[in-house]
Hints:
Pfam families: PDDEXK_1. Keywords: ATP-binding, DNA damage, DNA repair, Helicase, Hydrolase, Nucleotide-binding. This protein is α/β, with parallel strands linked by helices and 347 residues long. It has helices at 26-31, 70-78, 80-88, 97-112, 122-139, 150-170, 226-247, 271-294; strands at 3-6, 46-48, 66-68, 180-188, 193-207, 210-219, 253-258, 263-267. Strand 6, helix 7 and strand 7 (253-258) form a beta-alpha-beta unit.
Amino acid sequence: xxxxxxxxxxxxxxxxxxxxxxxxxxxxxxxxxxxxxxxxxxxxxxxxxxxxxxxxxxxxxxxxxxxxxxxxxxxxxxxxxxxxxxxxxxxxxxxxxxxxxxxxxxxxxxxxxxxxxxxxxxxxxxxxxxxxxxxxxxxxxxxxxxxxxxxxxxxxxxxxxxxxxxxxxxxxxxxxxxxxxxxxxxxxxxxxxxxxxxxxxxxxxxxxxxxxxxxxxxxxxxxxxxxxxxxxxxxxxxxxxxxxxxxxxxxxxxxxxxxxxxxxxxxxxxxxxxxxxxxxxxxxxxxxxxxxxxxxxxxxxxxxxxxxxxxxxxxxxxxxxxxxxxxxxxxxxxxxxxxxxxxxxxx
Length: 347
């Protein structure tokens, strides 16, 4: 396994982006996701089993114990009480400009690949922003209240345009043909735990060594410091584990693009790496299940508390959590059946 951080990624044709030297894997970069026409399929729908209803499993008769996505796993690791508020209590959270901007930029990058290859330019991406924002408003009209006036809205849209410019500094989409975009994936492990989530982009190529997969994730924040880098890479390994279990192929490369400061992380996993990830997921679920059975959801204060909407209910800030829902005591599976997060405020 190799992890690399740098300031720019070579384009798919192997040429450097923004004057940076091409990486040693430039030839592989050209093969993964590139085609003579640059055309690719949209990855609507699920890989493998398809989205299952709460309580269902991928295999008939298989025991089902609960479900977990990378974002909720990260919640529990950072603060079990935040996980409880989101999954058990299902407390509403107000929309934030950062998270909404991330969702909008993800939507633009998905739609960008609907354009002919030659048309995937920075200008075209900016032109897709108004429609993406209009679609968000149609689904959630309350988002308009985030901006007190037109000037605040324009400043926010300008920050989204800057993030799109960051994407083009890292990659040339004209030479890519993604196999899937915003791809929902899920798989039920032998233990009965259902893993689920959305992959921002999946690139595929047929090579002399067989099928090669590359998982790409866009983060609209800045690259994390060493203290939080492991959480981001765990998310990528989580997706790699899902794809390996579903398709029987270990992804050759995992890439995280940080559009906020135009940097990236790269991981090349192997089977032992993904087996270790599976063991970690199982151990994490055991801890979640123990908290679920005992009602012991502890707050873990950290620098991330500044982003949390639940400080008024948190004992670490003098608050009192609401009583646990009565249904929690029924002993059924603990199911995060909300749509898996496509974008988080931190990403």
